[in-house]
Amino acid sequence: MQEHLLSIELGLLLLVVFGALWVGYGFYLGRKANSLDGFMLAGRNVGLSLGTATAMATWVTSNTIMLAPKFALQLGVWGMVAYSTASFSLLLFAPMAQRIKYLMPHGYTAGDFVRLRYGKITWILFLMISMVYSMAWLVSMGMAGGIVLEALSGIDYKIGMSVILLVCVLYTVFGGLYAVIGTDFIQSVIILIGVVAIGAVVITTVDFGNIYHSIETERPALISLFMPVALISLFNNMFFGFGEVFHNNVWWSRAFAMRESVAKKAFGLSGLLWLPIPIAAGFIGLCSIALDINITDPDMVGPLVSASILGKVGAIFIFIVVFCSLASSIDSLLAATSDLVTEDIYKKLLNPQVDDQALRKYNVLIILGLGAITWLLCFMRLSDLIQVLFLSGPFVASLIFPIVCGLYWKSVNIKGVNVAVLIGSAIGLIFYFQIGWFIASLASAFVSFVITMTTTKLCPNEYNWNTLRSN
Amino acid sequence: MLVPLPLFGEVYFLQPDGALLEATEGHIHLEWQKGAGPFQLVKSRNQTFDPAQLLYEGPDRAYFITGLLEGDHFFKIIDNNKSEAIIRVSVTYPARELVILSLIIGGLLFSSLCAIIFMGNRQHARTSA
Fold this sequence. Notes:
The complex is a heterodimer of chains A (471) and B (129). In chain A, helix 3 packs across helix 8 (157-205), helix 4 (62-84) packs across helix 13 (276-290) and helix 9 packs across helix 13 (276-290). Chain A is 81% helix and 0% strand. Chain A is mainly alpha-helical. By secondary structure, chain B is α+β, with helices and mostly antiparallel strands. Chain B contains 1 helix and 8 strands; from the N terminus they run ββββββββα. Chain B is elongated and about 80 Å long. The termini of chain B are far apart. At the A-B interface, helix 4, helix 5, helix 10, helix 18 and helix 20 of A face strand 5, strand 6 and helix 1 of B.
């Protein structure tokens, strides 16, 4: 049985120090978040460095740090490449962000776009998918926080999970998107330094020839050019990533928050900065074979290898990097999901007459409510909730072409889009259960693509872009 | 293959299906119970374990093996030379045709997506200039 890499006392100290840092800094940044635009969209004035950092940090989740090494260990070199294709989501969202800023200079959420572009039915479908996906992601991050902190330092799951959620809720409530983006900047620097440092030490410590020889002898399929599941998952992962980024309000809210001249460059740079992280993390996972480390829990391969090479220092690095990656994603999810609930559900459906100041207050209450629901679901520690996140792949992938085509083509057939989302999701689910997770998102995206293209070609609509610009 | 029930105190693999496991992704998480250790985990491509490869030696009760080639693999856990248990893992990867089809479809979809976005942005640049 593997012992904890850090003592409980050290783990708690790191948790308290960094937790206090984020809450204090968030409180400081929140002085500017008085108006609705200030609270929800950081005044729509985010510059290049902050924009790049927040996009990169938000996309580095605990999955990137913990799951990427496991992916490489399971699926080999192609698995590493497959995971890194998630950077393409940010790279392709870059030109889309520019288009979004142009079309919707006063927009608040991705839901605004879908409602104005496609109407109520599509909007409701979109909200259902997005809320389930966002909550699943939020809960998976909360649970991951508790699990990882417990595995690394022995801090009780409930305590670790509660502290992480509480810290994120507090500074998001105090500072809105100003706090989220400001803390993301520091967290992204820490993540980059931590992963690069660990990767650099691993490369200089472990002999490449030894790594290759051990994999060739013990796990030959990992370096096979034709590793079937890894090759299938290549495009599946890519399209899961496209679905996540193109539809979710986490990214749309950042696009709205950035200056128009900055949005494209910021997302482009963030994609380039994100790309090496899963490669470095994956490489660390493959080193476990040459280092002869017995991995009893594949989720812990990253921390085990780091600690094996760097000792306690490596374990501390991993602890801090994981805490930063969790915080940078949880705060973004809290802010973006609360924006969606506030703007789309509360204002547009329930209380259209509400003024901005009242809406800002409701936004705070909704963040607190989301935090409470997340905490409760994490407290129950239902492992099925993690499966919900993986199952969301077909649903979010079905939204890719409707959203992209909706941004650039006037002629997209609205009924076709609704059918594309429904049937794409259904087919994706069938593939998930009948063949495997590694092809579900690709199947869904393909079916949605065919239906969207066919219906648009056969029965084109004529949309007026001014509908988006003037709302 | 009939699997005799383990006697009290003897080590055995903790897998729900007994002696045969299937792996479609080339990896499997092996766990074993009972026995006092230290344990030796040995792998072979045939039931006689000739030749065999030592994967692990130590006190742990689990091992995550990945990168297995297609076909049958046999694993034996030995508890300090007192008792042992054997399990067969059958690795069957998805068909080659599915791999090629997914690469072709993925490539087409990716190209289409890039074309829509970049041509759309070029059109946008022209009209907003």
